[in-house]
């Protein structure tokens, strides 16, 4: 099991998990088991290797088994959630959380596999389509980062619906905050989204020639990070993508349109710019007009219209269209904005297409699985990390409310003698991040709506309003950064690019350009038509939510909707643990593991489970027993 000694704690035994005192020392030992339970919480250590413990035989073994009757396993969580549905519990949610690289994506796939195998759809492809949607979106939404070879760069809330007989009858996927900046640039030892490399490895040679594709090293958007994944075969992954598309009934012409659009993104990135010498001012000159012409051809656009849009800003004054030359940086920004918009539209189209196949209306019961990006702290942290870590703060608050506050409030209401368990409350950090009117995200949205605002003016407002906050750290030196004391540790954020990333919309002239396509597939993908039933039943905005145009405002609203939806469900938790920083199998770094156990509230959870009343039975069920 996993053996943990923690200074000052009394010994407490759980399957495979012991907490006890050992003088003044803290020690963690890892033996054979990678998992343990604390009530309805599964603690799972990433093995960083393939295990043969996810077979159909094991699915059958764990079906209809209560937690604790068999060794700890992700299948047991799926079985327990399904059992609650069978007992009349309408909606369940399984919240999977942990640092980047802790194994959340694999846990999600295993849960989907279990539910699909144990409770298949009767007489239709729906179950198979739900299973295939996961690796398909993984190829388009996951990438290699420094900490994780298969990091989710978007959040996913998968609802699986069940009919009155307990069989799967549909599903719906909600996606959150695709990391758009990765499309146009990556840091060292990282990659762009998997699908680009898979496409280059798997497309027939004739098709690659038709799209004029080169090797990954020759495309500007793919050769920034020089990241290699030793154990990943892009060719085999591409075969799985095509198979998934076929099962999801994405037609050959639609597939062709997707890969044509991705090729256009790569060629657009190869259309570089340099500073022209003919003017005293910085006026951008297109380095390779041929790449722009290829891009225009693939997108069904007029080449000269595309080149003009890249090189000139279009504004309107007194009813007249005015064109002014862009400088080099502005031209690169315009190019990158189009590339990010194209890829994002493909991704959103895919999600909507999947939902159009597997979502047949809400049912009386469901099991939702939340797989959202893990807490991140890199050498350089930017806008994306701020949003990701805010999402993790919200999930930690949800966990705290359910495990600690609601539990202890219930004891007080029922007059049960009780010694209060202290836990780390992250309300102050959430207020710092999102409380109106001066939370960091609100300040960022406000500044993003001022044309003359800068990253530094945003930073000054953060310093002004939050210098007294315990969760905010103003740098001692005059540097363009700030730090936030998160539940998982203090993270320093560099503000360069914050406003641009938060605005991250396509200017009207560039939007108008894409609307001029004569490609039928581009019209379909570019229009982002959402199936009527998907539009009607998508998570509703909270009544006090304000729809704004900035990225962080939209993300905050979607996060509020997500938490509201989760509060209507009976939750289970899977806490994924990263055992070492090197992604190495069979290596267990004690301090790293203990830090994760501490900050995610596991120690306090053990304490409240030990001293509290974790088993509750309603009177009718008690009488039946």
From TrEMBL:
GO cellular component terms attached to this protein's record: actin cytoskeleton; actin-based cell projection; cytoplasm; membrane; myosin complex
Keyword Nucleotide-binding carried by entry: yes
GO-annotated biological processes: actin filament organization; endocytosis
Region (Actin-binding): 559-581
GO molecular function, one term: microfilament motor activity
Annotated keywords: Actin-binding, ATP-binding, Motor protein, Myosin, Nucleotide-binding
Family according to the record: Belongs to the TRAFAC class myosin-kinesin ATPase superfamily. Myosin family.
Span of domain Myosin motor: 36-625
Gene3D superfamilies: 1.10.10.820, 1.20.58.530, Kinesin motor domain, Myosin VI head, motor domain, U50 subdomain
Protein origin, superkingdom: Eukaryota
InterPro entries reported for this sequence: Kinesin_motor_dom_sf (IPR036961), Myosin_head_motor_dom-like (IPR001609), P-loop_NTPase (IPR027417), Unconventional_Myosin_ATPase (IPR051567)
Residues that hold ATP according to the record: 98-105
Protein name as catalogued: Myosin motor domain-containing protein
PROSITE patterns: MYOSIN_MOTOR
Keyword NADP: no
